[in-house]
Amino acid sequence: MSKQLVIVESPTKARTLSRFLGADYKIEASMGHVRDLPKAKLGVDVERDFDPQYVIPKDKRKIVEHLKDVAGDAKEIILATDPDREGEAIAWHVAHIVGGIQNAELRSKKEKNKKKKNSASSTINSKFSRIVFHEITKEAILEALKSPRSLDLKLVDAQVARRVLDRLVGYKLSPLLWVKVKKGLSAGRVQSVAVRLIVEREREIEAFKPQEYWSIEALLRKQKAKSSEQFEASLVKIDGKKAEVKNEKQAKEIVTDLENKDTVWQVADVEQKEVKRYPYPPFTTSTMTQGAANLLGFTAKKTMKLAQDLYEEGLITYHRTDSFNLAPIALGAARKYIKENFGSEYLPPTARIYKTKSKVAQEAHEAIRPTDVRKQQTANSEQLSKDHQRLYDLIWKRFVACQMAESIYDQVTLDIQAARYLPSRQVGKIQDTNYLFRAVGSVIKFSGWQKVYDRDAGQTVEPDEKPVPALAVGAKLDLLKLTPDQHFTEPPPRYTEASLIKILEEKGIGRPSTYAPIISTILERRYVELEERKFRPTPLGAATNDFLVKNFPQEIDVGFTAKMEDQLDDIANGERKWVPIIREFYNPFEKHLSGVFEKSERVKIFPELTDEKCPEGHPLVIRYGPFGKFLACEKYPEHKYTKQFESEEFRIKNEELKKLNLKCPKSGDPVILRQTRRGRIFYGCSGYPKCKWASWQLPKDG
């Protein structure tokens, strides 16, 4: 008996769906894309309106044959891939290979002869249908089956356009880089912009000149008050102007002046108010990857993999989204949960609706949330780890908190005047300099959403609880201590994964599905490296960036790349056709490329010098091999001397280990720190190779 065939991307998703669908359904996984552009050639017919020349990858041929076999026996074929452009494209390709679309080319002949050209072919067999759901739950699946639709060819076109555009740029630029920079390099349209941001930030840091400044803190107490009622205040104004203390000499003069026995300290102004702090919106892809990086230490790649697993297990909604939208049923469930578990005072009068900032967000999509707010644990699935639970916990807390009442602080601000006054017959007339100190203190009055999403969830709320006494204007104070502190202005920080994703989103570079791949790619190509979890360009990355900026200023311009992303969104929204957009970009790009090949000079990459020397006295430089960094003589490869590169983390751990004086548990020889070829740190016996004891963990003494 023929069954209804449901095709999804992964076995996990197939297994989850099988829990909800009966024996009438057969569920198969395509294992991702079943067709792609060929690896060994361009695969785009530029002369035929950039027609993509799709092939079935070798590792997908058995899967394709199997899908064809089971599709032939099915009475209906339901395409249930993910609800975004990539998912729509996978469904479209699957429909092609199993006979759901009669014309195997991208466009039908009839469409090619029309002026209104170039949409994905749409002659779809009536045996096929497409269903979309944003969470893998029984209710969502059954609802989707009630309202099947045709393939959304606008979304397919947008995915095709991105793939073709990226292939054209990559395949045309890469040979140029091999000749002008270094053999084996590759360039990417969006990745090159990300590298540019990192290089430009590094140049800002290198050019930064720190400026000295001083702060002055006063420890005060109301006269005759208890010692426990002391508080701190900061110097903010001198003679009514912003306090700018630029050096130690100036700071000491101010301290001497303030410590004068005739200086009177008194409260000049008091402000008491309630401060409300509102919850953060639910997670989008960008904010989830930022949050997981900052709070859990996860890379974007790891976060997206964990989120994919949680989605396919039916625990969270779709994780590639830039929308803050929440389904009414989810809002109702959250409000019910909050009232039952925290009390009605933690519930705002109406559900909180967050406006999506992204102009391209699809409001039909939801923010990332748990599919069942009552479920705080991911359950004992063999497929899920502690890290899955940690990410789920973060998503759950963020979702629940976003629907809770605001937290309320009682805030007190004291302005304190310090000055010497003229004799009593001229009371109120200030003699010499007038200093103004300010103390701001907040005490939480009602926790609201912080009851759930508190510091344990990694969200530090400013200001911290720091009580300041509510004193009356004119109250006299005793000075207990003055503390001048030297500071220096700091350069802008290097990008972390979280801050890089944030700036990419702010500038309109990339979309939810591309943030993690962008970061993985620039790391794998060794254009950048992570140093203490912060991005730093490698000499190769800086040299490649400088070459591209000089010769292709438009193509890797941030604004231009953002505009291209907008145009891809226009295609997805049905506002533009994809071929004219590709043509507008490609024709001038190809002409310019030819000129750069002829006129540009080869780039010299200067390796990074170190303070160390080789046995012959030549400086050692940092070079890059198949396994990462290593030290080599500056005359390498003529001089063969090399040495393993020791990271800052290695040096710090090594110093700590030396202090412990630990012994090998097997031989009794000293334990030393070692590194794998790829730079991973482990503990080993100094008696190696006689003793092969090793451990990833610091051994316990004795």
From TrEMBL:
**Residue ranges under compositional bias (Basic and acidic residues)?**
365-375
Class of enzymatic activity (EC top level): isomerase
Q: What segment(s) does the record annotate as region Disordered?
A: 365-384
One GO CC annotation: chromosome
Q: Which SUPFAM superfamilies match?
A: Prokaryotic type I DNA topoisomerase (SSF56712), Zinc beta-ribbon (SSF57783)
Asked if DNA-binding is a keyword of the record, the answer is yes
Q: What residues does the Topo IA-type catalytic domain cover? A: 152-593
- Annotated region Interaction with DNA: where? 186-191
Q: Which GO terms describe its molecular function?
A: DNA binding; DNA topoisomerase type I (single strand cut, ATP-independent) activity; zinc ion binding
E.C. code: 5.6.2.1
Keyword annotations from UniProtKB, A to Z: DNA-binding, Isomerase, Magnesium, Metal-binding, Topoisomerase, Zinc, Zinc-finger
Name the site position(s) for Interaction with DNA: 33, 162-163, 166, 171, 178, 320, 525
Q: Where is the Toprim domain?
A: 3-136
Look up keyword Nucleotidyltransferase and say if it applies. Answer: no
Give an example GO biological process: DNA topological change
Q: Which Pfam families match?
A: Topoisom_bac, Toprim, Zn_ribbon_Top1
Q: Where is the active site?
A: 318
Swiss-Prot/TrEMBL catalytic activity: ATP-independent breakage of single-stranded DNA, followed by passage and rejoining
- SMART domains reported in the protein's UniProt record: TOP1Ac (SM00437), TOP1Bc (SM00436), TOPRIM (SM00493)
Give the similarity note.
Belongs to the type IA topoisomerase family.
**Quaternary structure (record):** Monomer.
Reported function: Releases the supercoiling and torsional tension of DNA, which is introduced during the DNA replication and transcription, by transiently cleaving and rejoining one strand of the DNA duplex. Introduces a single-strand break via transesterification at a target site in duplex DNA. The scissile phosphodiester is attacked by the catalytic tyrosine of the enzyme, resulting in the formation of a DNA-(5'-phosphotyrosyl)-enzyme intermediate and the expulsion of a 3'-OH DNA strand. The free DNA strand then undergoes passage around the unbroken strand, thus removing DNA supercoils.
What's the protein name? DNA topoisomerase 1
Species annotation: Candidatus Woykebacteria bacterium GWA1_44_8
